[in-house]
Amino acid sequence: MLDSRKRAAVFLDRDGTLIKDANYPSNPAEVTPVPGAAEALRQFQAMGLALVVVSNQSGVGRGFVTEAQAAAVDTKFREIFRRAGIAFDGVYYCPHSPEAGCDCRKPQPGLLRRAAEDLDLSLADSFLIGDKVEDGQAAQAVGASGMLVTLDSERARAGLASGLAVFERLADTVAALGRRVKAPLATGPTSP
Ligand SMILES: [Mg+2]
Ligand SMILES: [Zn+2]
After folding, report:
1. According to the CATH classification, is domain 9-141+157-162+169-180 in 3.30.470.20?
2. Model confidence at 1, in pLDDT bands (50, 70, 90)?
3. Residue 106: nearest ligand to its CA?
4. Cβ distance 112 to 142 under 8 Å?
């Protein structure tokens, strides 16, 4: 059941979606935003959507990245976007290795569920943007809309086959999302 009192969110994958993908990122100096990411996020904010980052960081669970390194990368990531005027409503990480069998490593939807609980979100009205099919599958598992941003034709095909909306650039998702976001509740006088 949709609950109109709850807020909708746009869930965002981090690596490869908001910042350039570094394999098992451990160095804050290498955090580089994807071109157009801050502008897209500003527009999502203006639509009234909560901005929630959901990111797999299995490098921690695999022992490739220390918790301190992961925290330093997170700090730099938030700092870059804060300076660009972006306030995330939540940032959630799964630090587990695939073998751990946790419920939060995408395609499992645990991070989305946790955020929905913490932030009182309506998952059915929410969106998720990621660069892998597994991101979209986490959205589909909770009835949210999955959007895939990729220039890789292989991934794009897999995304379409999984029922995801596929885009080449993050900027391309803005118009698509704008058309689908419910109009925010009127707070002032409305014309008839
Ligand atoms: Mg990614
Ligand atoms: Zn996990």
Report:
1. no
2. low
3. 2
4. yes
Distance CA 101, CA 12 (A): 22
30 CA distance to ligand 1 centroid (A)?
15
**CA–CA separation, 140 and 162 (whole Å):** 9
Sheet with 9-12, edge to edge strand ranges: 90-94, 50-56, 9-12, 127-130, 145-149, 165-167
From the CA of 149, which ligand is nearest? 1
User: Rounded to the nearest whole angstrom, what is the distance from the C-alpha of residue 173 to the centroid of ligand 2?
Assistant: 27
Q: What is the predicted pLDDT for the residue at 76?
A: 98
Every domain of the chain and the residues it spans: 9-141+157-162+169-180
* Ligand 2 midpoint to CA 182 (Å): 31
What is the value of pTM for the model shown?
0.92
- Closest ligand to Cα 58: 2
- 59-114, pLDDT tens digit by residue? 999 999 999 999 999 999 999 999 999 999 999 999 999 999 999 999 999 999 99
pLDDT at 183 over 90: no
Q: What whole-number distance in Å separates Cα of residue 61 and Cα of residue 74?
A: 16
Ion ligand 2 neighbours (CB, 5 A) are 94, 96, 102, 104-105
Instruction: Let me know if 21 is a catalytic residue.
Output: no
Tokens matching residue 116: 């929905």
125 is catalytic: no
Structure tokens at 21: 């993908």
pLDDT of residue 31: 97
